[in-house]
Amino acid sequence: MSGYHDRDAVIVGAVRSPVGKGKPGGALHDVLPADLLAHSLGELVRRAGIDPVHIDDVIAGAVTQVGDQAANIGRNALLGAGFPDSVPGTTIDRQCGSSQQAISFAAQGVVAGAYDVVIAAGVESMSRVPMGASILPGSNPFGDAMARRYPEGLVPQGISAELIAARWGFSRAELDEFSASSHEKAAAATKDGLFDDELAPLAGLASDEIIRPGTTVETLAVLRPAFYDEAMQARFPQIKWEITAGNSSPLSDGSAAVLITSGRAARKMGLRPLARIHTSTVVGSDPLYMLTGVIPATEKVLRRAGLALADIDLFEVNEAFAPVVLAWAKETGADLAKTNVNGGAIAIGHPLGASGARLTTTLVNALRHNGKRFGLQTMCEGGGMANATIIERLD
C-alpha cells in the first residue's frame, strides 16, 4: 500500500447503524432520524478516540428534508450526539448520492486546506418520512421551463429501471438471479462477522434487518411487477414489466458516518488512516433513463485518477435496481465477481441519504478484509446523476 501526504484526505474512521425495514414495525421506526444520525456520529468519534471539539464541520446527506428530517438535521444530530456548540453542521441533497457527495465535499475541503477534521455522514428514516413527502400537494418542484424541455414528461425511477432492463435486454431470470446472489452474499457476510467492525447496534438491532437468507430465484419469481402502469405501457411498448420488489432495493432506515482528516492532522492526533480518498467525481445523465449515470461516472473517475478498470480490486455499486448494476457491468466491462462482494442494497437496504456513506464504510472494510488496494464506489441518483469515488487502502 502507498503512503499519504500532509494534505491528502484520509479516512480514519467509518461506522454505520444496522439497516432497518423502512416501514412502521421496522426495528428502527421508533428512532427519530436526528437520533439515528446522532448515534452514528457519537459512535464514530468514540471509536476514533477524538475530542469532537476538533471537528471543523459535519456534512450530512438526507433526501427527504421535511417533517422529522427537516430543519438542518446535520446540525441537530451533532448537537444530539453531544458535540460542542462550536461544531457546525449542514445538510445536503444529491438524492441517493447525498452522503457520497458529502464525502466528496469533505475531502475537497481537506485538500483545499479549509478543513483539517471533518465528518461526512447521512441518514434516512423512510419509515417515518416517506419518499416524496417533501413534494406537497399542488406544488411543482420541476418548473414550467423543465416541462417545456421534456414535453412528454419524465418518469418515476421504477419506470426508468424497466427502460434499462428493456434496453439492455435483461430477462426477469437474470434480474432475480442477481438479486438472490445479493441476499446470499450479505447473509454470508453477516454470518462470518464481516460487518461487525462497521456496525453500531441500535434499538436492539445488531445486524441488518432486511437480509433474507435462503432467498432463491424461485422465491423471487412469484413476485408481481411493482410498477405496472397502463399509460406507461402505451408510451413505452418495449417494457416487459420485470421489476419487482425482489429485484429492487427496499424501503429502509439507517445512518452512517465517515471521519476524514488531512494526513497531517492524522499524524498529529495519532490517528490511523484506513484509506485515502484518491479521486472523486460527479456526472449528469439522461433524466429519462435516470439511473445510468454510474456508467459515465465510472469512466470519468478512472480517467481523472489515471487508473484502468483492471487496477480496481473491489467495486461497490448501489443496487437501487438489479438492471442498474447489470447494465453498468455490461458497459464498463467490470467483473461482477469483484462487485458488492458482501451483498448490496437489494439485500442490505437503501436508506437514501445514508447509502453513500454506508457503501464507503462497507468498502473500506472489504478492502481490509480482502487485503486489496483500490476500491471504486458509484451510485445512481434521482434526476439523472451519479457520483463515483476511488479510495485507496492504506497499510
UniProtKB/TrEMBL annotation:
Pfam families per UniProt: Thiolase_C, Thiolase_N
InterPro entries referenced in this protein's UniProt entry, alphabetically: Thiolase, Thiolase-like, Thiolase_C, Thiolase_CS, Thiolase_N
Keyword Acyltransferase: yes
Top-level taxon of origin: Bacteria
Transmembrane segments: none
SUPFAM superfamilies, per the entry: Thiolase-like
Cited CDD domains: thiolase
Keywords assigned: Acyltransferase, Transferase
Stretches assigned to the Thiolase N-terminal domain: 10-262
Residues annotated as domain Thiolase C-terminal: 272-393
GO MF term list: acyltransferase activity
EC number: 2.3.1.-
Keyword Nucleotide-binding on entry: no
Family: Belongs to the thiolase-like superfamily. Thiolase family.
Protein's UniProt name: Thiolase family protein
Organism: [Mycobacterium] vasticus
